[in-house]
Specification:
It is a single chain. With 411 residues, the protein is an alpha+beta fold. 34% of the residues lie in helices and 27% in strands. The strands form 3 sheets. Strands 6-13-12-16-15-14 form a 6-stranded mixed sheet, sandwiched between helices.
Amino acid sequence: MSVIVIGVATESGVPIFSRKRGNNENIQFSTIASLHGINMFSKCHNLSVINSQVENGSILWKEYYKSVTLIGIVTGGLECDLELLLSCIHDVMIFCVGKKELENLKNIDQLKRDLRQCYPILDYLLESLDPNTVPTMTLVLDLIQSFLCPQAQHLQQVLDNYAEQVTGRWACLSIHGHLVATSTDFYELDPRESRLLLLLAAAQDGAPLRDTLVYLPYMSPDVAFRAVTCKLLADVYVLVVCGATPALSQIDEIVLQCWEGYAQIIKEAKLVHPRNFPGTIIFEPCVLGIFLVNVSQRRCVFSRHLQLSNQKGRGMSGAHRMDILRTFYVTSARDLAPELNFKEILDKDSDETIGKVSETYWCSEYHKCHAQRSANLLCCVLYAPTIPTHTMRLLTSQMLQEFLTNKDVHW
């Protein structure tokens, strides 16, 4: 499987960036020129190239502001998410340099340099389409990867206090790249903005304290905000979006005041990873993996380490289980939550039909998958192949009820 994304200046065809994942060679300049030439040739004839099917994959062109064209190439993977991938990459570009900079390409060389800071985030996004990698920061493109722990409610109160101290409104705490707790106002942001902030925190590369100017693609694409990321413990980061004051040195002192007494609580929360679910939730041995989605908050929780005894699934690696569940969600289970659909305009008839569906499943010789939605939660479960279908449905329903009622589950 391979995925390549290329950004070019629409008028000149000059490459702006190129990122790739998977078993593929570096793309040559002549190939980039040819791909861009196809798009320009079509425009000269008042036509638009939307996509092209190639052997075991597809190519997609998306133009933004008549100034930047993104070209995506996916082979042997989740081609159905390629358009969403390009849209997310467009958001990342705005996040780093602002909408005006993309609309008016006055200095392409400067834009190339400015976009280098977003390469780690771009790479995380590409990993979500590559089943050969084991992404830690992102699993699917349209959801915020999280984990659930009993300490989340307490940590939210600390976050609110911290955000108030630094005159910020939006703050989040991440552990191992997973969203654990948020400030009360965090969900005022568009879910894709929230996800970009989480990926920014994950991309800090061990820096103890960092100040970054970011543009929120939907709330403020032209005016930059200040995002301050602080490392609390190993793999634990707190991010807050605040104003020009206080100074970074003062924020360092505020971090110590607000968080020094909560190190033990954070360490207890860290113990939930990689299971990602509270220890009070017990799963049957036939459950090999689970993918839980909070539809309204666009958050998801994935686990392939369900048994507290660390018993491994027989005959199936953890990466394989993750890939099966991800593919099942993207190609089938996501239809149970039409509000997650990337398309702004859905076919009315199909939308009405999908809205009545509450469950779906796959069965094969080696595994079974079942997805069911209840209220705001969508649960996708990977089962051993020996489980009867009617038992599979019963267990999924029981797990959904547990997630809805368990007092240790805090989103």
